[in-house]
Design a protein that fits this description.
With 255 residues, the chain is α/β, with parallel strands linked by helices. The chain has one domain: LmbE-like (Rossmann fold, 3-Layer(aba) Sandwich), CATH 3.40.50. Strands 3-2-1-4-5-7-6 form a 7-stranded mixed β-sheet, with helices on both faces. α5 links the parallel β2 and β3. α5 runs antiparallel to α11 and α6 crosses α7. The longest helix has 16 residues. The chain starts with a helix and ends in an 11-residue tail after the last strand.
């Protein structure tokens, strides 16, 4: 019992002691945030703390899902499930784009063209007038090649001169991947995440985990034991660490 109480108390202490820092940039009133995901259910399994926190703060959220998750012929089913999940997350239907592009198909061995992804990101940023973009980091949390493809496409978008000249003020952030142990430590990971939060990172704690559970229940076709376990135990349903992507890391690319 005491082993459970100690980390929770420590977590709350750290959270409140750093509250001022946690409430700072990158997301403030007036921002418009675009989330780039790879498959239906990514928005709930990995990014729901960010989505719920932004909606609660009255910051507009839009989502570009780069595929409809049709690896097993369930694309149309998963599209409907994602729209239902987004209703639970309070993301308006008009703010959700789900692509079914022949070169951006769901698959563990399907590598997506960076330029094509960058173009889709550009189109969505333009449509929603977003000034903040959020996606996976280079490890993609689970290592899925499509998650990594989303990251590479956003990286291409932020470094390609043709896009930067049009959207020069847009900032990009990546969801930080953790070790397997931390990934399944749920709220217990809060002390570690708080202690080692970098100056260029934002820690977002899920204010309503029950909303995540309800949203995940809409993804009926994805109800496997490991996804159920992930929803119950993952730190990603409890918190997100978002790191600012710096163009200096990658340099500029010519169009």
């Amino acid at each position: 019992m005491y082993l459970l109480i100690i980390p929770i108390v420590l977590s709350l202490f750290l959270l409140f002691s750093r509250a001022r820092n946690l409430q700072k940039a990158p997301f403030q009133r007036g921002d418009r945030v675009l989330l780039i995901t790879a498959h239906p259910d990514d928005e709930t399994m990995f990014f729901s703390p960010t989505i719920i926190s932004l909606i609660r703060a009255s910051i507009p959220v839009s989502i570009l899902c780069l595929s409809n998750g049709g690896a097993y012929g369930l694309g149309s089913v998963r599209e409907k499930e994602m729209m239902e999940a987004c209703k639970e997350l309070k993301v308006p239907e008009d703010n959700v784009i789900i692509l079914d592009h022949p070169d951006l198909q769901d698959g563990m061995k399907t590598s997506w063209p960076e330029e094509l992804v960058a173009q889709q990101v550009y189109n969505a940023v333009t449509k929603y007038k977003a000034n903040q973009v959020v996606t996976f980091d280079k490890k993609g949390v689970s290592g899925h090649i499509n998650h990594v493809g989303a990251h590479k496409g956003v990286r291409r978008y932020m470094t390609d001169r043709q896009y930067r000249s049009a959207h020069g003020t847009v900032q990009c952030f990546e969801l930080v991947s953790t070790s397997l142990f931390r990934k399944f430590s749920g709220l217990m990971d809060l002390p570690v995440s708080s202690l080692f939060l970098g100056s260029n990172c934002k820690l977002v704690v899920n204010p309503f985990p029950g909303v995540t559970t309800k949203a995940m229940s809409k993804h009926k076709s994805q109800r496997t034991w490991y996804r159920h376990l992930f929803t119950l135990m993952s730190r990603y349903t409890m918190m997100n660490t978002l790191r600012k992507m710096e163009r200096s890391q990658y340099g500029y690319m010519s169009s």
